[in-house]
Fold Methionine--tRNA ligase, mitochondrial.
Amino acid sequence: MLRISAFRLLGRTGASRLSLLADFNLRHYSSDPLGVRDDTRDARAYFTTPIFYVNAAPHIGHLYSALLADALCRHHRLRVPSAAATRFSTGTDEHGLKIQQAAAAAGLAPSELCDRVSAQFQQLFREADISSTDFIRTTEARHRMAVQHFWGVLKARGLLYKGLYEGWYCASDECFLPEAKVTRQPGPSGDLCPVSLESGHPVSWTKEENYIFRLSQFREPLQRWLRGDPQAITPEPFHHAVLQWLEEELPDLSVSRRSSHLHWGIPVPGDDSQTIYVWLDALVNYLTVIGYPNPEFKSWWPTTSHIIGKDILKFHAIYWPALLLGAGMSPPHRIYVHSHWTVCGQKMSKSLGNVVDPRTCLDRYTVDGFRYFLLRQGVPNWDCDYYGEKVVKLLDSELAFALGGLLNRCTANRINPSGTYPAFCTTCFPSEPGLVGPTGRAQAEDYALVSAVATLPKQVADHYDNFQIYKALEAVSSCVRQTNGFVQRHAPWKLNWESPVDAPWLGTVLHVALECLRVFGTLLQPVTPSLADKLLSRLGVSATERGLGELHFLPRFYGHPCPFEGRRLGPETGVLFPRLDQSRAWLESYTNAF
């Protein structure tokens, strides 16, 4: 048995062999991951949220993670409509010392606490319209089998050994810490107490016999992986941070706890005196969902994109890829990292009483409204702030007035009495500004609008690929403003359908505006699915015409037939989005903006 103190290990053997093995796995799976051809990889996509710890009720940070993954998944479905091409998992992490302690404090058995809080997450995600294909709980039998099989693979490859760990452990973060990551802060009594340098949570000195994973052998393979794929971790500052961590010593990792201390978990196969470390247990959930260890998982794993909060970056970007390489698999295809939400400039905290209940927000601002706010305002690179007035102002401005007002204007019986997609007149709006003749009324700004909306789907797709959903929504909102400006500029309510001079141009203005709305509705489906459905239904766009493959903007402008021209609009669907601020002052300030 080896002795380990604060992860400084003695008696390491086989270092060069293990490093070569990890390097082979990395190179092999980078060139042809798990033997899957590129066309299969491009069609399929597997998105995951973290599995959420059940020691407390869900908050808006949990919902934000789920919404980011949901939007990425829904956008991929617009690209590849086949339901079999996309998987999306979320769930709850239900083992560990923190759960054991929280259950005891609540006077519950751990399983009772897990059932109660996991149900809260499931209910929240149903109400928030999260379109996951699997909700996994780590207490399920399928997961226990996957974890124990994964453990067996690591052991068979010589990557686990027993050692005596002596050092710091943070129960709140469920992680071991070297001395350099521990500081002292005044406790409730005023005495200095040891805490985690990163999280500020209390730590305690631990001395026990554990199984150890040879993490130190994977430092160079991890560096090669990240340097060889600059987009492996996005946004870039987090990619850079992980590479900086890897410049430091990477000590071996304790991957079990004494069962007498931690009984609420998965036992080490063949050694009931040890419980598998909660993070190893939790991370394997991503494999469990796709059928590991059955062969079917191999066609999905190379397409994996993890969406995580920055507080768990080290576990997902160092420990998890190293464990995967050790088990003969590739690191995740992508790790998308987001920052946190504050409330009125302060970190959410039970002690401050400022934890925001996401279900209350869904009720107050509507499901689509709160989805839109979090994804429109959330910037992955840095922490974002929540306060109620900000939500109301954004939603009223961009959804109720700009988008909803535009739809109402273009479908109102007074302006569009036939209730159809009017005809587009090519002489009124020729494809090139220089061709505008005596009957032409299009202006330079109108051509700028057509150009902006024509390039919008590609622009939005690029932002999704770069994990910048907020920029995708900024781009859509900008085009909505341009379209409102177009309608305001040409004032169709001042034109007369009975006039042979006005009618062609009136129809053209409405046709262009409706085409713009069709693009906006299609592109908003990943973020505001119900609102987008209402908008597209009002335009008479069928379910089979809502994918990105069918999104051909303003074909008549480019000399092609338009399948919507002359088609009746759909039935009246009511207000697209309800105005949240009912004050007259806000309505007047918005109206004056036009």
